[in-house]
Amino acid sequence: MENITHTIQAVPLNHYILLSTIIFAIGVTGVLIRRNAIVIFMSVELMLNAVNLLLTAFSAYKGDASGQVFVFFIMALAAAEVAVGLAIIVMIYRNTHSTDINVLNRLKW
Amino acid sequence: MNTLILISVLPILLLYLGVFKAKNALLPVTVIGLLAAAGLAIAGWNANATPIYHDMVLFDRFSIAFSVITILSTVLILLLSKDYFEKISSHVAEYYAVMLFSLAGIICMVSYYNLTMLFIGIEIMSVSLYILAGIKKRDFASNEASLKYFLMGAFSTGFLLFGIALIYGATGSFSISVIRDWILTHPRGIDPLFHTGVLLIIVGLCFKLGAAPFHFWTPDVYEGSPSLITAFMSTVVKTAGIAAFLRLFQSAFSTISDFWMPVLLVITVLTLFIGNITALYQQSFKRMLAFSSISHAGYLLFAVVALGAASANSVLIYAAAYSIASIIAFGVLILVQQQADSDHFSSFNGLGKSNPFLAFVLTVAMLSLAGIPLTAGFIGKFYMFTGALSRLQVWLVIIAVVNAIISIYYYFKVIVAMYFRGGEERTVLAVPGYFVFVLGLSALLTIVLGVYPTLIADINF
């Protein structure tokens, strides 16, 4: 554990913040421009993992475990969301034979 | 804490009842359990509230008041569910269970004392709602609502989490009290991590609350979901959202209100105008209610903008008045939808002659939503505006009053349809006993709260 913390601290904190922000921004862009429900879903996961990375970096720098515990909660949530989200996508696919969100225009968007 | 435990155990019991095919026991067990949970919450009213479990949750009077109001609204909505779920599927126990899991998340959202619990509460509530929005598996609108709600909800969670992570980076803790102390000991200007974090949390919570410009998912999801679930989303969930919002800003960020107040002011004004003006030209009653719920989110945000000692009280009154009136509106909508198979304004034509009782309670609800005196809605708006005026937000109140006047137009559209438009050929709607009880009780509460506002306004936090 001591080693990992030292390894993480070998890179300046600002670099972690920048990297997480870039990953998060890629996720947001993906949600906004992609049209396939599953790709949008993957982009959301990318956003959550950017947060995980950021929390881990902060946690290692502050020597405080609660940030890493929070990461476990986010992972548990991501798993729950995958279960529900994929079920919803399968339900849509059965009715429309497509996962393209452009099909979803029965209600005004 | 007992409330939360009871509401978490109750759905598991319901699932077992479902396994043993005890369908008739489902509703009574749920209602009795929820009333017991509300009773347990009230029993702790005078207790000395201290944060428990390493500062994770705090069951103070704020959380008790909002727990009770969300539990009672859920009871009213569940009473309307008699025979509703049976039409969708033969496995009804799951629907009650998922709805109660969602309520357990809501109790977390109104009692958190740590950002971890806020996050967990919001997610328990949201993931259950994604399922509930899609329970009509063959209905395309329900599918679409479910997927849209899921994608937008997960997207907004990302923003909320990024905000929480940045605040953790600045303060080194998720605890509300540590964050508050950190702000007091670091009075220097703008901290890039902390203040960006606050902005991202505002974005995330506004998504959940359905405030403009993050409202675009609301009308579609509310229209597509089954009406009973829409009633749950637009009353209980909205109350919980604003309670979580207020708790965070009142207890943690109140000292930097100069920073976030202008942002929330813009969001509030935008929400009011977009909600009200778009509601004007809706042809569907359900979609009109969706837009009206956006504008009510705007009025609820008043309490956060004009943050003060009375904020929690005015939110409680407004949320109670709005929830009761919306439950009536959705209850009548469910009955009309069953007969006419449409939620357009025209399907309400002639209801005044065929079903005077339904027409009367719906009129009371519409008057309350529009904020006409002698109804609970007026008292709610009155306390909100007084709070804003005391913080010298005169322009905000003027804009809000203009919006309240605009809203009268579309609320009266349905009253006009019921009493003055055709419909001699209309057959009488059968109103089940549960509906008579819920609708009558809600209409009575609306009028009683409008005449004797001190019943709820004198509650001290």
TrEMBL record, chain A:
Q: Which InterPro entries match?
A: NADH_UbQ_OxRdtase_chain4L/K, NUOK/Mnh_C1-like
In its UniProt record, a GO molecular function of this protein is: NADH dehydrogenase (quinone) (non-electrogenic) activity
What is the main EC category here?
translocase
> Which GO terms fall under biological process for this protein?
ATP synthesis coupled electron transport
Catalysed reaction per UniProt?
a quinone + NADH + 5 H(+)(in) = a quinol + NAD(+) + 4 H(+)(out)
| Coiled-coil positions | none
**EC number per UniProt:** 7.1.1.-
Q: Does the keyword NAD apply?
A: yes
Q: Where in the cell is it found?
A: Cell membrane; Membrane
**In which broad location class does this protein mainly occur, judging by the first location in its UniProt entry?**
membrane
Any one cellular-component term (Gene Ontology)? plasma membrane
Which topology term describes how it sits in the membrane? Answer: Multi-pass membrane protein
Pfam families to which the protein is assigned, alphabetical: Oxidored_q2 (PF00420)
Q: Which residues cross the membrane?
A: 15-33, 40-61, 67-93
Q: Which UniProt keywords are present, listed alphabetically?
A: Cell membrane, Membrane, NAD, Oxidoreductase, Quinone, Translocase, Transmembrane, Transmembrane helix, Transport
Task: Summarize the protein's role.
Answer: NDH-1 shuttles electrons from NADH, via FMN and iron-sulfur (Fe-S) centers, to quinones in the respiratory chain. The immediate electron acceptor for the enzyme in this species is believed to be a menaquinone. Couples the redox reaction to proton translocation (for every two electrons transferred, four hydrogen ions are translocated across the cytoplasmic membrane), and thus conserves the redox energy in a proton gradient. NDH-1 shuttles electrons from NADH, via FMN and iron-sulfur (Fe-S) centers, to quinones in the respiratory chain. The immediate electron acceptor for the enzyme in this species is believed to be ubiquinone. Couples the redox reaction to proton translocation (for every two electrons transferred, four hydrogen ions are translocated across the cytoplasmic membrane), and thus conserves the redox energy in a proton gradient.
Q: How does it assemble?
A: NDH-1 is composed of 14 different subunits. Subunits NuoA, H, J, K, L, M, N constitute the membrane sector of the complex.
- Family assignment? Belongs to the complex I subunit 4L family.
Q: What is the name listed in the Swiss-Prot or TrEMBL entry for this protein?
A: NADH-quinone oxidoreductase subunit K
**Which source organism does the UniProt entry give?**
Mucilaginibacter straminoryzae
Q: Which gene encodes it?
A: nuoK
From TrEMBL, chain B:
Residue ranges annotated as transmembrane are: 6-22, 29-47, 62-80, 92-112, 118-135, 147-168, 193-216, 228-247, 259-281, 288-309, 315-336, 357-380, 392-412, 433-455
Q: In the record, what terms sit under GO molecular function? A: NADH dehydrogenase (quinone) (non-electrogenic) activity; NADH dehydrogenase (ubiquinone) activity; quinone binding
Has keyword Transmembrane helix? yes
Q: Can the keyword Oxidoreductase be found in this entry's annotation? A: no
Which Pfam families does this one have?
Proton_antipo_M (PF00361)
The biological process GO terms on file are:
ATP synthesis coupled electron transport
Task: State the top-level EC class.
Answer: translocase
What is known about what this protein does?
NDH-1 shuttles electrons from NADH, via FMN and iron-sulfur (Fe-S) centers, to quinones in the respiratory chain. The immediate electron acceptor for the enzyme in this species is believed to be a menaquinone. Couples the redox reaction to proton translocation (for every two electrons transferred, four hydrogen ions are translocated across the cytoplasmic membrane), and thus conserves the redox energy in a proton gradient.
Q: What is this protein called?
A: NADH-quinone oxidoreductase subunit N
Taxonomic source organism: Mucilaginibacter straminoryzae
Q: Coding gene?
A: nuoN
